[in-house]
């Protein structure tokens, strides 16, 4: 509980420091909004032309897209610099964090924190529009709302675990940008769409090696299509706990092997 209170205190302090530059905050939020919405609009225009992709409608894809966007925004809001560990390793700035009287991971997670309003807002808009349409057609009911909240939270945990494990690899590799492009950026982009679109080998990679398929696709099969039963949701919860434990263990191992840059 002490670590949680300390974490929240450091998060607030970091956000207050970033809000000192209000113009930069507003400008970056607007630009991020344009980037995010343009990516989705390109997909929406294609689907509006052809109707669906392998049986998945535009509203169902919007649901997957919105869940992934919000889950990623929560992860990046609460653990921003986990994704940027490389710069601490290269510059030697991690040494300064090591001597602080707080857990290293807590200190790192609270560095440069900011709320990703653009991503969260657009994700919510996509979810509201898609779920309203799906409810109107009778495909889902109001029970999908709390289930979606559950999916977003477990998804954020899974994305954090993937990011933490990738960052921990930096204790051996130092340079991890290329690895992050695969485990985080590329995999999360792929998981915005139904994984049934991809070949079997890629589906296996997105379920096992980098389990982003459990962020939105697997639980959505139950919520949107009533497939697999509630076991899909329970399985998602188990996967989130398991990958978090594995990532934390890998992080602790890597941190124990860390050697200063000597600078």
From TrEMBL:
Under the heading InterPro entries, the entry gives:
ABC-2_transporter-like
Q: Which residues cross the membrane?
A: 21-50, 56-75, 87-109, 115-135, 147-173, 201-224, 231-251
What the entry lists under Pfam families is as follows: ABC2_membrane_6
The answer to keyword Transmembrane helix applying to this record is yes
**Domain of life where this protein originates:** Bacteria
Q: What keywords does the record list, in alphabetical order?
A: Membrane, Transmembrane, Transmembrane helix
Record-given protein name: ABC transporter permease
Biological classification of the source: Bacteria, Bacillati, Bacillota, Bacilli, Bacillales
């Amino acid at each position: 509980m002490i670590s949680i209170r300390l974490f929240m205190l450091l998060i607030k302090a970091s956000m207050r420091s970033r809000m000192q530059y209000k113009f930069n905050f507003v400008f970056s939020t607007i630009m991020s909004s344009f980037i995010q919405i343009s990516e989705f609009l390109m997909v929406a225009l294609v689907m509006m032309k052809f109707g669906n992709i392998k049986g998945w409608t535009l509203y169902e894809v919007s649901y997957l897209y919105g869940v992934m966007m919000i889950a990623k925004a929560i992860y990046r809001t609460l653990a921003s610099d986990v994704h940027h560990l490389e710069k601490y390793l290269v510059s030697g700035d991690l040494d300064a964090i090591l001597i602080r009287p707080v857990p290293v991971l807590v200190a790192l997670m609270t560095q440069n924190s900011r709320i990703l309003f653009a991503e969260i807002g657009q994700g919510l808009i996509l979810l509201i529009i898609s779920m309203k349409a799906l409810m109107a057609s009778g495909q889902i009911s109001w029970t999908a709302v709390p289930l979606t909240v559950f999916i977003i939270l477990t998804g954020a945990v899974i994305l954090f675990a993937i990011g933490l494990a990738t960052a921990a690899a930096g204790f051996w590799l130092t340079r991890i940008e290329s690895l992050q492009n695969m485990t985080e950026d590329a995999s999360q982009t792929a998981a915005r769409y139904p994984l049934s679109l991809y070949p079997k080998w890629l589906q296996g990679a997105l379920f096992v090696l980098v389990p982003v398929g459990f962020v939105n696709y697997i639980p959505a099969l139950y919520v949107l299509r009533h497939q697999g039963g509630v076991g899909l949701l329970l399985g998602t919860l188990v996967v989130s706990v398991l990958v978090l434990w594995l990532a934390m263990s890998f992080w602790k191992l890597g941190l124990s092997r860390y050697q200063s840059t000597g600078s």
